[in-house]
Amino acid sequence: RDGVWLGVNPRHLEVLAPDGSPAAAGSRGRLVVTKLHDTGDPVVRYDTGDIAERFDEPCECGRTLPRLKIYGRPESSVAIGERRITAYDVRTCVDADPELVGRKVLLVRDYDGDVLNVAIEGNEHNAAAIERRIHESLGVERVSFTWLGRARMAWGFRQAVDKSEVQER
After folding, report:
1. CB-based contact 137:93 (threshold 8 Å)
2. For the whole prediction, is pTM greater than 0.85?
């Protein structure tokens, strides 16, 4: 229901583990597409660059095709320890607070490795609750927030930026 859910034909969309083998259902990996239609050129195992996860259990709506959830691209994520945290992951934790829905949220890369840095448009609101949700949902122990006040963030579609870009604001 949340994110991008698609009914997929497993012969044409694959989620691959880092070693190139099929990722287990419920595990994240890289989305690879094959298109063999009678129109246009064939595309065989095109790596889209997206991070995705395949789910084989039936949807609540009754459809029985495997489903796919797309989380974004590696450049829209940060590494925290051994785990890759996507902007989508953090967005779901922030949007759980109705007061924060619609605010721009960015992951901030500072290459510390164990602190998740998040910049949020607007004034501070329920930081402790957001941090608790991030800890519970994502298993991240340390979170740092930068609240950007009234300044509108003009990073377009980017979801992760370097620390120096936020400091310039």
Report:
1. yes
2. no
